[in-house]
Amino acid sequence: MSDSKVVELQIIESVGVITINNPPVNALTLEVREELKKILMEIRQAKDLRVLVITGAGSKCFVAGADIKDFPKQMEFGPRENATIYKEMFAYLEEAPIPVIAALNGLALGGGCELALACDLRIADEKVKLGLPEVTLGLIPGLGGTQRLARLIGQSKAKELLFTGTVITAEEALKIGLVNQVVPLGTALEEALKLAHKLAKGAGVAMAYAKQLVNKGTELPLQEALEMEMQHVEKIFRTEDLQEGLDAFINKRPPVFKNR
Ligand SMILES: C/C=C/C(=O)SCCNC(=O)CCNC(=O)[C@H](O)C(C)(C)COP(=O)(O)OP(=O)(O)OC[C@H]1O[C@@H](n2cnc3c(N)ncnc32)[C@H](O)[C@@H]1OP(=O)(O)O
């Protein structure tokens, strides 16, 4: 467990949990940004990290967005420097060869929603609300929200949420594909950890390839993407995990995957 108070990292049985702990709303302040930089270095060194979960402390907010009180400074010096570490963090979440799950324990607004969008899966507590309300401040999302939201839920719905700044319920988010699951009050982290520990025992190479193929393939022309998929199928046919999976099936026993 890192000794920071605004961002904590715990790794238990190859499942990492990053908790944004910056009361009262887990805003992405300068202190959070600096701590995230350290945490990013730590997780990059982590040996057998198989799944990562990101959540907020408390029950009010996952993350209520960028630090609005810091904006006057950003207006003076420009927003790029503040965005850089988040872009690096979000790129890590998207490129890491492991499933990344956002456990939405509370409001996910602005930069908080953008952090959730950079994860592979989103599990939302039933009371959670999500949105990109930047337009109500005369702003636009600056941590990838305009791009990831449109790719995830389609351009027209994304424009509707961006134009209006509407904050939607977890159920509405489920309907449009913005979250994967809605879970009972107060159980987002518990459910995310259940899924994380299940995935951590799964075929890690297969999940890494599936993540990479979806993330990279959907930006390519179909035939190129299909070729990339076939190249990965050829690679996976040479893994021990496939041998183990087939042998376990034939011998009617649970597989023990070694992630190689
Ligand atoms: C590139 C990225 C851009 C962005 O992310 S832009 C920001 C997008 N986020 C938002 O627009 C959310 C703004 N916040 C709110 O809408 C509300 O707040 C909440 C719904 C999160 C909570 O509302 P309630 O329960 O009524 O509490 P409260 O009095 O509004 O807030 C408690 C304290 O938290 C501060 N705070 C809230 N959100 C932020 C924020 N995003 N950045 C900095 N501070 C924030 C407030 O000012 C206040 O502080 P004090 O107690 O000193 O008055």
Automatic annotation (TrEMBL):
Enzyme class: lyase
UniProt catalytic activity: a short-chain (3S)-3-hydroxyacyl-CoA = a short-chain (2E)-enoyl-CoA + H2O
Molecular function, one GO term: 3-hydroxyacyl-CoA dehydratase activity
Keywords of this entry: Lyase
Domain of life from the UniProt record: Bacteria
Pfam families for this protein: ECH_1 (PF00378)
GO BP annotations listed: fatty acid beta-oxidation
Recorded metabolic or biological pathway in which this protein acts: Lipid metabolism; butanoate metabolism
SUPFAM superfamilies, per database record: ClpP/crotonase (SSF52096)
Record-listed E.C. numbers: 4.2.1.150
InterPro entries, A to Z: ClpP/crotonase-like_dom_sf, Enoyl-CoA_hyd/isom_CS, Enoyl-CoA_hydra/iso, Enoyl-CoA_hydra_C
Subunit structure: Homotetramer.
Family label: Belongs to the enoyl-CoA hydratase/isomerase family.
Protein name: short-chain-enoyl-CoA hydratase
Species for this entry: Desulfosporosinus meridiei (strain ATCC BAA-275 / DSM 13257 / KCTC 12902 / NCIMB 13706 / S10)
Organism taxonomic ancestry: Bacteria, Bacillati, Bacillota, Clostridia, Eubacteriales
